[in-house]
Here is the input.
Amino acid sequence: MKRTLYVSAATAVVLMAGGPVAVAAATTADTARTVTAATAVPADVTAQEAAAAALKEYPGVVESLDQDGAVWHVDVISKGEHDHAELEVDANSKVTVENKDNDGHSSDQMALLTAKVTAAQAMKAALAAHPGKVTTVEWDNDDNGTRYWHVEVKGSGDKTWDGRVDATTAKVTTSTDSDSNNDSDSDSNDEDQDN
Here is the structure.
């Protein structure tokens, strides 16, 4: 019993003497972690970069691309097989396959695979018509069956611009401006205004 008391007392003395050194070492380690975290801030990945990263991981054609915070959700249709993949691209361009199926291509997806204008070309055309940052690209068709790309661009002053890019000519055929940040899929944004 006496021996245990001496060992405990000796341990307490060592801890007290080493305490300031241990605290300083821990503080230095925390500072190093903070500096590392501050310098490792990820770059903001653009829609074009997210699409390229997704296609590098899963070759095919981008069907849609949508930003959710720092993460991009990208749907890709494979050209050679009947595969479809839902991918996520993070702020470091790391690609994660969220879902993959082999259900065969729908007629809409077949039209996408043969379209003359890709998602990347549609983004380029939309940005030429309205500078900003692309937040959404989606393969779509209207009531007449005309295929197009729906592109949303966030411009200056938090204005969201919606545009239609023709799937054959890459001509921007419809555009609207709104002051809201919310995404709207309603037909109220589909007023025909040629640029």
Notes: Helices lie at 2-39, 47-57, 107-114, 119-129. Confidence is low (pLDDT under 50) at residues 1-16, 20-42, 180-195. Residues 87 and 98 are 5 Å apart (CA to CA). The longest helix spans residues 2-39.
